[in-house]
Design brief:
189 residues, alpha+beta, Topoisomerase I, Chain A, domain 4, Gyrase A, domain 2, 2 domains, 4-stranded antiparallel beta sheet, two-stranded antiparallel ribbon, 4 helices, 6 strands
């Protein structure tokens, strides 16, 4: 084994860490801020004919006004299921339906609700950090195994560990940056 294989392992780690960041970004998009966004509800799970389905697969979602979301189901029979899923979510929204379209009016967030949302967000940030650290741990174990099996030298191991730590630090910093931006968005009045 050579440094090329270590580079391949680091590339794999970077791909997996990037996946953790994408997952975090999707999670953060679903956390409510003062402005309406389709991302707030599009991943909401709706029980549709006995199958949990994302809302974005059942309806078109638009934002006609800054504090309003309009959901137009492709199948009018699914309106009750969608309303039920919205009420069951922890978004704190009350759906209004005219039989064809569902309107969600986002009331302004009070200070306490904003702080709760920041706590939710921090929990998701920590989950992402743990995911990145788990990827680092797995790769670190692989590097040590390679060194024990004499596939790489001790120097290669040290260089690989340093590169892995730099990569991990970069992604943890990226997670913190996402959190900082989202917190600003949530606390904005």
């Amino acid at each position: 084994m050579s440094t090329d294989e270590i580079k391949d392992l680091l590339k794999d780690a970077e791909t997996r860490m990037t996946g953790a960041i994408h997952s975090l970004t999707d999670d953060l998009a679903g956390i409510r801020t003062g402005r309406a966004s389709p991302a707030l509800v599009e991943r909401l799970s709706v029980e549709y004919y006995g199958t949990p389905t994302h809302l974005m697969q059942l309806a078109s979602i638009s934002v006609p006004e800054p504090r309003s979301i309009m959901i137009k189901p492709f199948d009018a029979a699914s309106i009750k299921d969608i309303e039920r899923a919205i009420r069951a979510s922890n978004l704190g929204l009350n759906p209004n339906s005219d039989g064809k379209v569902i309107h969600l009016n986002l009331p302004p967030l009070d200070e306490e609700r904003r702080r709760d949302l920041v706590k939710q967000m921090n929990h998701r940030l920590e989950e992402a950090r743990v995911a990145v650290r788990n990827i680092r741990r797995d790769l670190h174990n692989d590097l040590r195994d390679y060194e024990k099996e004499k596939l790489i030298t001790e120097d290669d191991l040290k260089r690989g560990e340093e590169d892995l730590q730099k990569l991990t630090d970069k992604f943890v910093e990226d997670i913190s940056r996402h959190g900082y931006n989202k917190e600003k968005e949530i606390m904005e009045v």
